[in-house]
Amino acid sequence: MLMSQLYAPTLRETPAEAELASHRFMLRAGLIRRSAAGVYSFLPLGLRVIRKVEAIIREEMSKIGGQEVLMPIVQPAELWHATGRWNDYGDEMFRLVDRHNRQFCLGPTHEELITDLIRSEVRSYRQLPLRLYQIQNKYRDEIRPRFGLIRGREFIMKDMYSFDRDEQGLDESYWACYHAYERIFARCGLDARPVEADSGAIGGDVTHEFMVLADAGEDLVLYCTSCEYAANVERAEAGPVASAKAAGEQLPMEEVATPGTTTIQEITAFLGVEATQCIKTMIYLADGEPVAALVRGDHELNEVKLQRLLGCSQLELADPETIAQVTNAPVGFAGPVGLAVPIVADHAVLEMVNAVTGANKADYHVKNVNVGRDFNADKAADIRAAQPGDPCPTCGAPLTSAWGIEVGQVFKLGTKYSAALKATFLDENGKEQPLIMGCYGIGVGRTAAAVIEQNHDEHGICWPMSIAPYHVIVVPVSVKDEQQWETAQAIYKALQDAQVEVVLDDRDERPGVKFKDADLIGFPIRITVGPKSLSQGNVEVTLRKTGDRTEVPVHQITEYVVNIISKG
Ligand code: ATP
Ligand code: MG
């Protein structure tokens, strides 16, 4: 490809809306262009990267027996009604109506469709396991589309679905895919880490997310400093806190005026106590019913854990009117003593002695509140967010935290979809059984963006060889110099003949401009044909990632470059 012909409109200025390096460089290097919020076109360089990620995914899916299919994007509403997800999916689903007034959606995911696809044709255990996947656009009307390809509303996903006869089969499919994902991300040049994740309100099932640790991530990951334990904060178990039970005798309850102090910070300052001595009482609506949730003042409530514990499909903080009804007080003065709604307490709250909490009375708190004496919890459970410094649930060493970008997720579904859609098979005894399913997704565009997050500098992208749009750029310092131009062309031809993906910068531009573009686009290898090296019969090879420069004799350049590429 000649640079003068390549449709890669680069931008000198940083587009204002691009906060992240990946977004910025994909726009500036001419990989993508936005057409609406969260909706992008891929230009030639961007598409080459996407196709390479897809090729790696296809190879690895094929290695674990995955067979590629392509399902429709437009899906009939009836299938979604059958599983209840037409409602559950809410506003994230793009919905449409045809001329006959039939309802459809643009697929946000394909569990319903694939289950429907195979249910009439998979009948016997002999046909199992079955692992089918596709690579296709998905549609989700995200509340906040942002960060370019990282959170789009139209995005490319690889989604695989496995069908097995029993739990053991599902286990094999799950771990086969888990390991395939490890290989895929490693081959893309990503440092991605599997973490335990929450499976949503249905609970019980096993799932891992593959996280790329990056400051730009939207998920908080807690991981152990000494063993392999790592979990999304939504999931991470909060270990026991040191017991305070022996800390002293229970004192009589005492009401204290605390005018206008509603936050833990204000209370601790006003009363001169530690946050660890306060109980935070939050009133929630679980499927519309009020419930009080208690955590220690220095802890954060984890709504995912609370929702899983309550088994409700909707959980939200109660509005001020409900709080006033339940506590007889405005927001900020709730406490567990005398409350007439169910109380869920975090384990750490049960260890507290002589705690401070809201008095359920405007402008008052109570001191010396003791569980068991002054109130009882209907349920005690782990409902707080684990935090850095907490003991690892596996080995006890302290946990630490980092932000992560979720690039993939593997999920044991069990029979949720097969039961709802009656997808069954006959086992060895001729007995009808529901298919046991798993599902496994990778965000293709998000993966490419995550690679940039981990591989860039202030000048641009530093593509790993495996997914670089081209391997090499050949830059003659001056195209007007006959010897340089002829040498550059000869090298370009020789590399093409050796199947190297190469661009020749044939533009009559200053070398600085050409080097800037080469760095921005991120060609892993730059071959500079300049007068000084050439007088010695050499050209200069620069590696984008390290900046290492080597003089290489012109007649050895193809071999030299092919060797670097083969090493990856
Ligand atoms: P998130 O929590 O980030 O919204 P998710 O858990 O809803 O993602 P999945 O349903 O697990 O996403 O989808 C599988 C993969 O698809 C994700 O791991 C991610 O890589 C990708 N993905 C999901 N939503 C988006 C999006 N809006 N834009 C780009 N990629 C996405
Ligand atoms: Mg996910």
Write up what this structure looks like.
The strands form eight sheets. Strands 3, 7, 8, 9, 10, 11, 12, 21 and 24 form a nine-stranded mixed beta sheet that branches. A five-stranded mixed beta sheet has the order 16-14-15-17-20. Strands 28-27-29-30-31 form a five-stranded mixed beta sheet, sandwiched between helices. The mean pLDDT is about 95. About 25% of the residues lie in helices and about 30% in strands. The chain folds into three domains: about 20-190 and about 420-450, BirA Bifunctional Protein, domain 2, CATH 3.30.930.10; about 255-380, YbaK protein, CATH 3.90.960.10; about 470-565, Anticodon-binding domain (Rossmann fold, 3-Layer(aba) Sandwich), CATH 3.40.50.800. It is globular and about 95 Å long. Helix 1 crosses helix 12, helix 2 runs antiparallel to helix 6 (about 165-185) and helix 2 packs across helix 12. By secondary structure, it is of the alpha+beta class. The protein binds adenosine-5'-triphosphate and magnesium ion (MG). Adenosine-5'-triphosphate binds near residues 109 and 445.
